[in-house]
Structure formats: C-alpha cells, structure tokens
Amino acid sequence: MRVWIENPFDNLPLEGFRPQRYWLMAEAFARAGHETVLWTSDFNHTTKARRRLSRKPEAFALRLLHAPAYSGNISLGRVFSHLAYARAWRRAAMAEADRSGAPDIIIASTPPLFACAAARRLASRFGARFVVDVMDAWPETFGRVAPAWALAPLRLVAGANYRAAAMVTAVASRYVDLVRRYGFGGPARLFYHGIALPSAAPRRAAAPATPLRLAYAGNLGVTYDLATVVRALTRLPGATLDIAGAGSGERDLAALASSLGLSARVHFRGYLGEEALADMLAGCDVGVVPMDESSCVGVPYKLCDYAKASLAIASSLGGESAELLAKYAAGAVYRTGDEASLARALQSLDVRQAGDNARRMAEAEFDARKIYDSYVHFVTQGLCT
User: Fold this and answer.
1) Which of these, 346, 237, 249, lies nearest to 289 by C-alpha position?
2) Torsion angle defined by CA atoms of residues 94, 99, 104 and 110, in that order, rounded to the nearest 10 degrees
3) Mean pLDDT throughout 248-273?
C-alpha cells in the first residue's frame, strides 16, 4: 500500500538529531513492505533554520515542503507559516498523486491544524484512510495566552479534523479523551513516543556523583519553567545543570543564574546532535521535566530521552507522566514553580536505583521498534490482504 505521513515539526536524523516519531513511523511502514512517503517542512521548528540534509533516506521517500521562517513559537509569523505550509502540502500532494498514484492511507499529525485539515480534504478526494495522530492539544494549549473566544475558530477546525478521521492515534491518553469530547467515535489508541534503544543500557559509574548533576533537553520557551530549576540549585550545594537547547528564555535564564551566583553551575550547551546529547546525558544523574500541567503535555519526548539514558527523572507534570514514574519508581514529582519542592524531590531520590528503573521503563514503554510495528498493524487493519 501507499502510505503518506505528514508532520512539519520533528527533527530528522539526516540533520544529526536522533530519529523522532514520524521518521521511526516511516521506517516501520517501509519495513512492513509499504510504499512510504514522509512529508515535512524545509524549515526546522527547533533550530529556526532551513534544514540542511546530508543525504536521503534509503527505506522511504522524503518530501520537504517550503514554509516561511518564523522566530517565535507563539507569534503571527508562525500562524502564517503554518498556513503557507498547508497550501504547499496540498499542491505537492496533488502533484505526487498524479505522478506516482494516490495514497491508501494518509497519517497527519496535529498540530498543526491547517495541514491536518488539508490532509483531511486530500484523503476525502483520494478515498484514502485518514488517520489523525495527536501530538499536542491544539488549540487547548493556547488557553494560557489567549481568551476562549479567540480560540473558537481553531476548535472548529480541530473538531472537523477529528470527526473526519477513520482512526485517531495519540501520544498520551489525555489526547484520546480529548478527541472523544470533540465527538470522535471511531477507533482510537495510545502510542507513546518511541525511542530507538540500543541492545544494552548505557554504562554508568558505579555510584552517582556528589553533588548532583541535573540535565534538561529541549526548548527554552514559555512552556518550560527552568527558572525554578535554577533557583533550586541554591538549595543543592554544588549541584549543576546542563541545558541542551535554546530559545527565547535563554537570556533571562542566564541573567537569573548570574544574579544568584550560579553562572559556573549552569551550562548552556545549545542544541545538540544525537551523539553529543547522549554524551551530555551520560555525564548527568537526573533529567528534569519542568512543565506546568496547563501546558496540556502528556508524556514528552524528553522523558523518553532521559529514560533511555538511565537517568532518574524529576518532573512537575501530573497525569500519565507522574503515573509512569510511580509505576516504575523511576523518579519523583514536584510542584511547578516551587524550588523547595524540587529540591526535596531530588534529595529524596535514590538516583542510581531510579535511573536503572527509568531504563526499565524505556524498554517496557518506549521501545520504538515495538511501538511502531504495532502502530502499522493498527493503522492498516482491514486494508491488507
């Protein structure tokens, strides 16, 4: 079968990053013998730069769609970029169908809403199975920065996308519940972010370092409460924080560290490729997930990265993330914005045992090969003979 997968946001291993959800998904479909096309943007959402690819994938086709650049994750520029990307996706998809044949299945991520809506219309035109893969709760996540009335038009788009889907898949159970509230009554299933796991866990020192070495991997934007993590260092003598990422909040965070006399203990590494990130995490003890519950995030990529690296995890997320940490005794939960709560959580951890348990959690819950082979089976059911 012909399978099209669309998502503009994920980093690509061809850029030096670790493979993320949609690349791993495309590999799984190709491995199962399906003719697979992965559609994505030529603008990297993470680095805010044009993609520069070293080569082409061997197992499936990769199509880069032009999208205007934007500098802020919450900005009109991003809205216009998403609209332009959706138009480019529709035009390119029509040309691809004329050239190589229409798809049997279209899997579209949401967000973004407009590209998912374009996929909905394309699937209807081609008679393809339309699958919505929910990565985040849009527009619900913007409830923190916009009034409800302003989000009403986006809710209409989201609802139309969900209700038109033949199937819905999601990275968190809360998103399955969300699409049900929008009126979707078809098959829906949870598939966590998968992460490619080596056959053996990373080798670590026999005992954790003293003082603690904290790690954070991800964007430095308004969703992430890293200021609380920095302030918590004042309660943890000698503890350090390594940050792999960048974003609009970096300057303020550096200024805060300086004002607290912590500049030598807070290290900004910038965005790191797969190997460099693995090296950084291997030198740390605890991975931090400093996200507010209002972010609508269920189980983020970074939790999987930390678990793969056998790091204990300190998280301010409730819901599924907290449940997973409790189930595997892989870390501790603290209150968002409360540095004393974070310090107590870190001091309560048996870092080595929690790190070993986190790796066990990665193998049980986040193994990409298992997740995406199962994903292929779910999405193709009834179509393969």
Assistant:
1) 346
2) -40
3) 93
